[in-house]
Write a structure and sequence with these properties.
alpha/beta
Length: about 270
């Protein structure tokens, strides 16, 4: 039986969603190394699906099944026996489909992750992705309806968005019922420290910060750990077994209290 989100204790490792690539097969390949895998992103409603089709027209990969809610259920069922906590990253310009998607996740002990992260203009123009970071009322409504289904609820967010106070976002989504704040640090890793120092993070406050961006091995895992993250995630390296295994080893060392040395492969990968 697949583990449940409630089985996870920080620190842990997440394979982050890759649009058009992160499906059940991808999750199965990552499962030997990660604690959780977030499928998607998947566009749910007509405006977000139209934006996704526009992205495909300029050669981006996107999931565009006929029925996205059915797709979510089918994909989660396909990893029901995999040794990994599953989740789905969802995009929507309207709240109703978020509720439907979250209910499917709740029925399958999976995470519903609300995408407040994508910066493509097509998605921002219809009110998806990082535009939600500038619309606190709508973002917290999404979180609230997802959390009320009983699903573990995550928000994928981006640092360094003009006019957005990410600590305030963390406070708002925590109050609305979010369990995870999945932060793309955008080469601004210290935002994780800001969230740890002043935001509602940690096991006592109920919001786990998952740090994303540039996670490649012991050095980067140790950096995010020192800044107060509760977990880390990998995006593109999730389809490179050697890199994923290296990060997994670093997270194991973090969990065991022995995270210190930088491995040579990470230094080489970071070199010009």
């Amino acid at each position: 039986m697949r583990p449940r989100p409630s089985d996870l204790d920080p620190p842990f490792l997440v394979a982050a969603s890759l649009s058009g690539a992160a499906d059940a097969d991808w999750a199965r390949r990552a499962a030997p190394h990660v604690d959780a895998a977030v499928l998607g992103g998947i566009a749910l409603d007509p405006p977000s699906r139209s934006a996704a089709r526009d992205l495909v027209s300029r050669d981006r990969s996107e999931f565009l099944p006929d029925d996205p809610i059915e797709w979510i259920g089918g994909q989660l069922d396909a990893v029901a026996d995999a040794p990994v906590v599953a989740g789905v990253n969802v995009r929507s310009a309207t709240v109703g489909p978020v509720r439907e998607a979250a209910a499917v996740c709740a029925d399958r002990d999976a995470v519903c992750e609300i995408n407040a992260h994508c910066r493509q203009p097509e998605l921002r123009e219809v009110g998806c992705g990082e535009s939600l970071l500038r619309d606190a009322d709508r973002l917290t409504e999404y979180v609230s309806v997802a959390a009320r289904t009983g699903a573990t609820t995550s928000v994928k967010a981006r640092a360094e968005v003009d006019g957005v106070d990410l600590v305030a976002v963390a406070d708002a989504v925590a109050d609305a019922g979010a369990d995870w704040l999945h932060v793309d640090a955008m080469d601004s890793e210290r935002v994780v420290r800001d969230l740890s120092d002043t935001g509602p993070t940690g096991p006592d406050d109920g919001l786990t910060v998952i740090a994303n961006n540039g996670v490649r091995g012991r050095r980067t895992v140790a950096e995010y750990a020192a800044y107060g993250a509760g977990a880390v995630s990998v995006g593109r390296p999730s389809d490179r077994p050697a890199a994923l295994a290296r990060v997994a080893d670093a997270v194991t060392a973090w969990r065991e209290g022995s995270l210190s040395e930088v491995d040579a492969d990470e230094r080489s990968e970071a070199s010009p």
